[in-house]
């Protein structure tokens, strides 16, 4: 069984691209996942590369940005390639099949104290004599 579930924050904005020929969307980003225990007493994190394909990739690119908290589930995949200098490079990444946005894309709504909302026109007065208790 190869299954991974992670919750963490994006280290930078996702990078969306499209595969030439097929036009299939792919987005790549790095997820900072806090470690449960720390040896030094300070918070530590692992930085895990994530790859998302298809419509989920487009939604991820459109609705999340650096620092946002997301949940990812998928599988671990390793691959290798030959670098320009002729050395063999190995990559381990999570291929996500599900991404959940755990924070709003536009951040928390700010309260504007200069223009408070007036609900008085939308409140219907109730006659206390109509209440049965």
Q: What can you tell me about this protein's structure?
A:
It is a single chain. The chain has one domain (4-36, 43-106): Nucleic acid-binding proteins (OB fold (Dihydrolipoamide Acetyltransferase, E2P), Beta Barrel), CATH 2.40.50. The protein contains one helix and six strands, in the order ββββαββ. The chain has one helix at residues 54-63; strands at residues 4-10, 15-18, 25-34, 45-53, 69-82, 88-101. Strands 1-3-4-6-5 form a five-stranded mixed barrel. A hairpin with a 6-residue loop joins strand 2 (15-18) and strand 3 (25-34).
Within the largest sheet, what's the order of strands?
A: 1-3-4-6-5
Derived from helix and strand composition plus strand pairing, the structural class reads mainly beta
How would you state the average pLDDT, rounded? 84
> How many domain units?
1
Round the Cα radius of gyration to an integer and report it.
23 Å
**CATH fold descriptor:** OB fold (Dihydrolipoamide Acetyltransferase, E2P)
Number of strands: 6
CATH homologous superfamily? Nucleic acid-binding proteins
Beta fraction: 35-45%
Q: Report how far the terminal alpha carbons are from each other.
A: 60 Å
Q: Unreliable runs, pLDDT <50, ≥5 residues?
A: 107-115
Order of helices and strands: EEEEHEE
Give the CATH level 1 class: Mainly Beta
Name the helicity range: under 10%
**CATH architectural category:** Beta Barrel
Tally of alpha and pi helices: 1
Based on Cα principal axes, name the global outline.
globular
* Biggest sheet overview: 5 strands, mixed, barrel
């Amino acid at each position: 069984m190869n299954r991974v579930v992670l919750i963490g924050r994006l280290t930078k904005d996702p990078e969306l691209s499209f595969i030439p020929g097929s036009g299939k969307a792919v987005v790549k980003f790095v997820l900072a996942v806090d470690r449960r225990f720390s040896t030094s007493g300070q918070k530590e994190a692992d930085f895990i590369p994530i790859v998302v394909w298809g419509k989920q990739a487009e939604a991820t690119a459109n609705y999340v940005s650096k620092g946002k908290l997301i949940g990812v589930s998928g599988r671990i995949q390793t691959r290798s390639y030959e670098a320009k200098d002729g050395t063999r490079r190995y990559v381990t990444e999570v291929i996500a099949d599900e991404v959940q946005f755990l924070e709003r894309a536009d951040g928390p709504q700010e309260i504007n104290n200069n223009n408070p909302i007036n609900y008085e026109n939308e409140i219907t007065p109730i006659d206390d004599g109509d209440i049965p208790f």
